[in-house]
Write a structure and sequence with these properties.
Length: 378
């Protein structure tokens, strides 16, 4: 465990983000996505706060194991959990776990649907169906005859309603104005809903929008939205269309480390593993962060700021240390022992880091390892 380096999570900012999203999406309930340890922030703490303080009642995870962890650690709280991807209904004894802990599997194929419908223990259990409207990953096919097949299976078992109908956008981080992928998917989704309505199967709840869609106010006609990233602060939109977002969140986390050492360098010097050439005269600050903390060795080159000075990650990121190079040799507080902010509460920090490293904020957050302690304040 790191001693000084840590991810500091302001739960009050999570509250502000939720509040802003509620104001912008007045007619929608949330399924708050907390998979992958709540995008690296600590799933149990985030759910505990969101449920007890912010009154969020539904959460989404990817795997049964995550859902069980929530039930085990938060036995006194009342909330619904959906498992979206890693469903193993037929694997004994998984189906009992869904039943006994009221964990809703999101059904995305016929074998799981058949299992659920034909197992009398699930007679009154909520059914959540996910259709593939164009993502072509998980999901029931949405052709007329496939939807009919689903409907007749439901009718054959005496089902008159389903609890939740959902689908997932493939390209919500792109502009909805400039391409019609999401619009085409949404049209298909509406057709599926109409088929259910025509056949008198009630759809009690529905959702399709993840962060990128919500930021463009797309898909808000459904009862629910499924925000993930934006609740943690950053925009999910690609750089080129980020201006389209109405949502201005605060990054709920800041990643703080400290300066292990600072030393002057001359142009042409060779430093670190593989002997990287120093490009100019300047100083190097060694910070207590490396790929052992989830600051990937692939991420060489991005700029990191110290106060208002822009430095750059120089040479290879080590397991425990990263070298940050500054051309200005007289930065007042750049001293051993002082704190160094990798990203702060302004979401632009982590967005810049993601843009410069050719990846997405999601990855920067999720890949922080267990060596980084998470600290919470309100
Ligand atoms: C992760 C996930 C979301 C949330 O996505 P964001 O882009 O983080 O908002 C929504 N729906 C499903 C099914 C997901 O797996």
């Amino acid at each position: 465990m790191r001693y000084q380096t840590g991810l500091y999570i302001n739960l009050g900012y999570l509250g502000e983000n939720v509040e802003q999203l509620r104001k912008g999406c007045k007619n929608n309930e949330f399924i708050f996505m907390v998979k992958a340890e709540a995008y690296g922030h600590g799933m149990v703490q985030i759910v505990k706060y969101a449920n007890s303080e912010l009154k969020i009642k539904e959460f989404g995870v990817a795997s049964l194991g995550e859902a069980l962890k929530l039930r085990k650690e938060l036995p006194d709280l009342k909330f619904e959990i959906y498992v979206f991807s890693d469903i193993q209904l037929e694997l004994h004894p998984c189906s009992d776990l869904y039943l006994n802990h009221r964990i809703i599997p999101v059904i995305s194929n016929f074998s799981d649907l058949d299992f659920l419908l034909n197992n009398s223990n699930f007679l009154n259990f909520p059914i959540c169906l996910k259709f593939n409207t164009g993502m072509n990953r998980l999901g029931l096919d949405c052709g007329l005859s496939e939807v009919d097949k689903v409907i007749s299976k439901l009718k054959n078992r005496g089902r008159k309603s389903i609890y939740h109908l959902c689908s997932h956008f493939s390209s919500a981080s792109e502009s909805m104005v400039e391409n019609d992928k999401s619009r085409r998917q949404y049209e298909k989704f509406k057709k599926i809903k109409k088929q259910f309505a025509d056949e008198k199967i009630e759809v009690e709840r529905s959702s399709i929008s993840n962060s990128g869609a919500i930021e463009q106010k797309f898909g808000l006609e459904e009862s629910h939205i499924r925000p993930g990233l934006i609740l943690y602060g950053p925009s999910a939109l690609n750089k080129a269309c980020r201006h389209l977002s109405w949502f201005k969140g605060k990054n709920i986390s800041k990643l703080l480390t400290y300066i292990i050492d600072v030393f002057p360098v001359k142009r042409g010097m060779l430093i670190g593993y593989g002997e990287t050439v120093v490009p100019d005269d300047g100083v190097i600050a060694l910070i207590a962060l490396g790929y052992g903390d989830g600051f990937s060795a692939r991420l060489t080159g991005p700029s990191l700021k110290f106060e208002d000075e822009v430095g750059e990650v120089l040479g290879k990121v080590n397991m425990d240390i990263t070298q940050v190079f500054f051309r200005n040799i007289k930065i007042k507080n750049l001293k051993a022992g002082n704190l160094f902010t990798v990203w702060g509460h302004n979401p632009q920090d982590i967005l810049d880091l993601a843009d410069q490293t050719d990846t997405i904020c999601y990855e920067h957050l999720c890949q922080l390892t267990a060596r980084i302690p998470r600290y919470y304040c309100d």
